[in-house]
Amino acid sequence: MNTSPPARIAQQLFKESGLASSHEPVETKVVDDLLARHYQLSGHLDRLATEKDDTFRLRTGTADHLVKVSPPDEAVSAVALQTAAMRHLESEAPHLPVQRVTQTTEGNDNVPIKAKDGGVRVLRVFDFVEGAVLARTNPDPHQLAQVGQMLGRVDLALRSFRHPADERRLVWDLRHFDQLRELIEYTPSAAHRRLAQEVFRLFHEAVVPRLGDLETQVIHGDYSPYNVLVDPRTDSFVTGVIDFGDSMRSALIFDPAVSLANLLGRTPSDPWREACSFVAGYERARPIRDTELPLLPVAALARLTLRALVTHWRAERVPERRDYLLEHARDDWVNVERAMAVALEEVVARLLSTRHGMP
């Protein structure tokens, strides 16, 4: 197994994604003071486990808020992109249950914090969306279709959105997947390395030649089961869409691919069943081009493989977030293997047969 640092391309992608290194957590007292000074908010702060931000739940006694402080290596322009995307959705599609940004008393969307290393971190406050995360539920096919349809609605509303920073480079953007093959070397299991090599081969042959032709727009970027809040007692099922931290301009099919990656293999006897339900719902709101739909299963496999590779690499280098990272990716290799046991031609045929209907 390789123990040396990744090559320059991977290093730069990790840095621009805010994943290059660990950082000293922001002190709770600093957050308390800023909330009181700029938001006139006070209460009890509970620190929440996250991938890279410092995140808190603020309990005021009347209403709860989510407080985020960006990592020191994330560009201020990237944070501005995330906020602008949320503001766009609030304006263009106010009916969508997208988490709202809270303004400061001065009318700003954030508060800059001077970091000890001279950089700038950004504090933002959001409303706290109630509901269970999708990952903690057991949705039926109809509910999964509703989850897919919600992402389709978000993507439809984002189609007209533009921002100076929307061409940001992220390690999670599958446009760069083919350039990250070296991450295979950091995986200790020979069996996992073989799986990853096969996924890279499929992606290189099927998707890479088409990258320049794919429909592009700003996408959510991380519509995972941990960023979708649901309530089975409601007709719409989805009660909240949160965390636009990976928003970027990329291929449209890479947005549902994130969701599919999280659904693959969860039903061992039919590893693509939940993914097909999701896509059926997504296409009701935002149809995928006929020429692009066959690429979606490969993109989903690539995203799941990428998470497994990146998670292992980061868990060894950011020990304070190791438990959080490994919890979110503990079954990734098993699910890659299960999903790859089904011929891709069969998966594509199934996706085509369930368009605009229930699987």
Question: If you had to describe this structure to a student in words, what would you say it looks like?
Answer:
The structure is a single chain. By secondary structure, the chain is of the alpha+beta class. The chain has eleven helices and eleven strands. The chain has helices at residues 8-16, 28-38, 76-92, 141-158, 190-206, 254-263, 273-285, 296-317, 322-328, 332-340, 344-353; strands at 44-48, 54-59, 64-69, 101-102, 111-114, 120-127, 132-133, 216-219, 228-230, 238-241, 248-251. Strands 1, 2, 3, 4, 5 and 6 form a six-stranded antiparallel sheet that branches. Strands 7-9-10 form a three-stranded antiparallel sheet, covered by helices on one side. A hairpin with a 7-residue loop joins strand 9 (228-230) and strand 10 (238-241). The longest helix has 22 residues, at 296-317. It is globular. The mean pLDDT is 91.
